[in-house]
Specification:
mainly alpha; 9 helices; 81% helix
Length: 218
């Protein structure tokens, strides 16, 4: 893909990533947040966190299935939008809901299981966001970076559990997110097994042996 196309692609991702925030601001300015604005903002930021999280997890399988190498160029940016909306979701809770009452927040984390799951999901995203740079990949090494970023699976599971435990009546939306996450995890596992068994045959066929550590981080 040429550089101009890459630039246009990233602009499109930025516009798509910022659209939910723009929509939320517009609704806030026009009185469209409903009778409970805090609940509306909390639900909106949480929902978009899940949407971007599942989108991030889908990029690698989609790249492997379609062969579209350019998808890897947007994975990091989409991942940062996950952290961005998760941070907005978290800030809504500690600022608008709890007014920075630390004791009340600690009580929530220890006593309310959906808060515990949500807090875990957010905490696991922090090291991933901090190590999202090329410098971090270089300093940690490809394999160590990969191991660390597998935390996104745990974070995703915790986020879906957080949403499921928070919803008290209509479980359709949590069930949809859980099904998508489960499908993505199974697909990634299947592709990983496929790649594991395909690589040795390729090496034998080509008559070369790949040196350890030369495989690019996925």
């Amino acid at each position: 893909m040429t550089r101009p196309k890459i630039v246009l692609l990233k602009i499109a991702v930025w516009l798509g990533g910022l659209f939910p925030l723009g929509r939320l601001i517009y609704k806030g300015l026009t009185g469209g947040l409903g009778a409970n604005p805090i609940e509306f903002i909390t639900l909106s930021t949480g929902t978009w966190t899940l949407v971007f999280l599942l989108t991030t997890l889908s990029i690698t399988p989609l790249r492997k299935l379609t062969g579209l190498a350019w998808l890897i160029r947007i994975r990091r940016l989409v991942g940062l939008f996950v952290f961005f909306y998760a941070s907005l979701h978290f800030m809504t809770y500690i600022w608008l809901d709890k007014f920075f009452d630390l004791q009340d927040m600690i009580k929530d984390v220890t006593k309310r299981r959906f808060i515990t799951a949500g807090f875990l999901a957010f905490m696991l995203l922090i090291p991933l966001a901090l190590t999202s740079t090329t410098w971090a990949v270089r300093e940690l090494g490809g394999k160590n970076w990969q191991r660390l970023h597998r935390l996104i699976y745990v974070s995703a599971v915790a986020a879906v559990i957080h949403f499921s435990w928070k919803v008290k009546a209509d479980m359709r939306d949590p069930a949809i997110y859980a099904a998508i996450l489960g499908g993505l995890l199974l697909l990634r596992l299947a592709l990983s097994v496929r790649d594991k068994y395909r690589k040795p045959s390729r090496r034998v066929k080509s008559g070369t042996v790949q040196q350890p550590g030369t495989q690019p981080a996925d």
